[in-house]
Amino acid sequence: MRYIFIFLLLVQLAVLSAQPALGQRVRRPTTTASPKDTVNISPPQDSLVTTAPQGDIETTINYSARDSILFEVDRKVVHLYGDAKIDYGTMELSAAYIEINYDLNTLTATTLADSAGQETGTPVFKDGAESYAAKRIAYNYKTKRGRISEVVTQQGEGYIHSEVVKKNEANEIFGLHNKYTTCNLEHPHFYISAGKIKAIPNDKIMSGPFNLVIADIPTPLGFLFGLFPTPKNKRSSGVIMPTFGESRARGFYLSNGGYYLALNDYIGTRITGDIYSLGGYKVTVDNTYIKRYAYRGNFNISYDYFKNDEADVADPNRSTNSLAGLPPTQRTAFVNWSHSPVQKPGRGRFSANVRAGSSQHNRVNFNNPNNYLTPTFNSTIQYQKNIQNTPFSYTATLSQGQNNGGFVGEGENQRPAPTTMRFTLPDLNFAMTQTSLYELFSKNVPTGRWYENFTFGYNLRARNEVSNQVAARRLGNVPVVDGTERDTTFALNLNNLDRLWRNGRKSADHNFTIGLGNYKVFRFFNLTPNVNYRETWFDNKLTYTYDDEQQAVRIDTASFGRVYEYGAGASLNTTVYGTVQFPKSKRVEAIRHTMIPSVSYGYRPNFGDENRFGFSQTTQVGLDSLTNQPIFQTLPRFNGNVPSGGLQSSLSMQINNRVEMKVRSRSDSTEAKSEKVSLIDNLNIGTSYNLAADSLRLSPINISMNTRLFKVFDVNFTSTLNPYQLNPGGTRPVNRYMLEGPGFKLARLTNANLSVRANFNPAARSTNVPPPTNLPGMLNPNDQFLPDYVDFNIPWTLNLDYTIFYTGGTQQNRGEITQNIGMQGTLNLTEKWKFGYMAGYDFTNQNISNASLDIYRDLHCWEMSIGWRPFGLMRGYNVTINARSALLRDLRLTRNRSGMNFR
């Protein structure tokens, strides 16, 4: 190595023989016209390359300088002045001045003072992905150790300000007199002051005793040691610090403390718990899993012991105002599971959405009104697959539903109401999409004949519905032999599985769809005939007999029964266009009205005919108390699953309308294009007339309309008109048209609904999607990473909702009108202040239905949020000040008085 170095120096001497003696500065000329004044060892002209394949130098050292390069042969030192740069393998070093010592294998970089005395050319050291900026850097390229003075290094989301840093060959950093912070300013707003720090890149930062400093004011907050994980692109296991607070219902508490297990790259488990001073605890296990391009999901199970002594002991001297409406002491559990696959052609799709558990769990652990007020929870597990290159598909579903319970009894006798559980185990569906019969059974090419348009579709749904509630056998006021007096609900456990299965209701539904094609008639009309057939199998069929001794109806059950129905019909429709031109108008060119009238006819037999179909049975149900004559009643034979009776020979009429306007652009260009503006997106009027009915043949008239005006207002309108008059009591319609009454009235308005939504967000007028509410709610204080969704680029948003609903009255009253108006939006007063607001007013009850105000303040590396709910179940407020970094998520101050909590 030494001989190679001497050889290179001799080459340098030969080239520089006409230059000043060694030991003096070699300055580059200000111009590049003559190459004699430059150091030209190898291109480019302002750089030097030293190669040494063997010895202490492992690879090529490339170095350059803008001002000059000075060699000291006797000391084996090279000096680089002005924008000095060195490239050695993965290491890069740049500074105003760099010294290379080949004898000690060191690199030293510092700043230089300019003509004004200011320090310039701060040294920057890069080694792979690590980068450091400091006033002085010393690095040994043989041992890969370094010493850096007054340096700022970035580790994960944090920054370390150190007086002196030593770096070893493993890239580990040892700092002296340190400031650790997540603030990216040169003078941070806050930091953790620690005498000694060790940082392992992409792993963790460890420190000795430390304390928190805010605005250069030391605080007593600190600990004997510190550990800050800084993983990069990977998860790591670690302790989850709890939060503390106070609850009206459960006293002082520590919440959401535990441990996070990063089991592997696909699964992470979060185990947390709560403990309360008034007794009780809660344990939650939350698992998140993901496999790229395959599936992702979350499985959460929670167990809670809720203790409420005031509800357990009936003592009139004890106040229960703070616990009003809360359940007594109980143990509850709840499971949440969501699984979403990535859809792939030709492969099955397994999905799950499960919410099941104790009915009272969400009432004592709610964090928003939806959890508290939701009456039912439903769960679904499903597997679905389309068989490739065939019209067939199948689906297997397991579903479950439960009510939210509630309470029965008062005082010490209060207890949770029985929970009704409903299961569909299983729910199987096999379907064949509508397919051409000609293509299905023939290999010939279609020739366009009428019978080639015939299509066939089939759907089979088989299911078993079970419940832990046994409904009483009752037929209205008719006495039933062995009938229970009331419904009964039994517990779900292993001992009751056979009872659960016996009470199940099994059925198989077959639905056939037959299409007879589409045909042109009279040039402008489309005729579409259709035929349908449906059959359902049940696991029981009821037969009724009257017991004279007990004067009650006896019900006998058979093991199988079938119900079927069929019908046929045809529809005829066309499209009519009408256009009005405006040649003299400067803006409006034309208005076009599109009308699509359609008429359809459907026929369906009277499946309530007992003699012909037998889906119902007329039997004696008692004796008349005055005449002692038998009383007969027609009863269904399939637990109410009987096609609706009556002959249907119905003619349906419908007219769909669209109105558009063509306007010229406001551009001054002679080639300005026109654009279409929708005035009415859809106006639909429809009714039907049953030719086979003996009375009330004309059905109510339905009118619906929706449109979007000026790209701001969304208007929706629905109404129902009844063409018949009411009886004198105003309780039911009679077979007499409104036209036949006094005055000229076509129909009677039974109900109407008008809703108008206005979106005044200037950045979102071109879309139909309303902007999201950007501010966090006070109902979820765990969401501390507000910068992720607080958008300061939108200056303001405003959404207004107005709804009016009318319910028709009778001769005795004029009906009821319900009106509500709602408002929500955001406002950015400055770049750092953002306000969110929401309010609603009920004109009928003349009160404010709901209201909230949210305030967000950006404090650079900190943030503040304020939320206020003046009304409702969750009325209260919260104030939160916290560090923005996820690394210091527990560094926050919260004041919360909302719902059952106050902190």
From TrEMBL:
Region annotated Disordered, chain positions: 26-51
Residue ranges crossing the lipid bilayer per the database entry: none
Keyword set, alphabetical order: Signal
Lineage: Bacteria, Pseudomonadati, Bacteroidota, Cytophagia, Cytophagales
Keyword Heme assigned: no
Name this protein carries in UniProt: LPS-assembly protein LptD central domain-containing protein
Location of the LPS-assembly protein LptD central domain: 205-724
One GO cellular component term: transporter complex
One Pfam family here: LptD_2
InterPro entries (alphabetical): LptD (IPR050218), LptD_2 (IPR045659)
Skewed-composition ranges (Polar residues): 29-51
Source species, domain of life: Bacteria
Signal sequence coordinates: 1-23
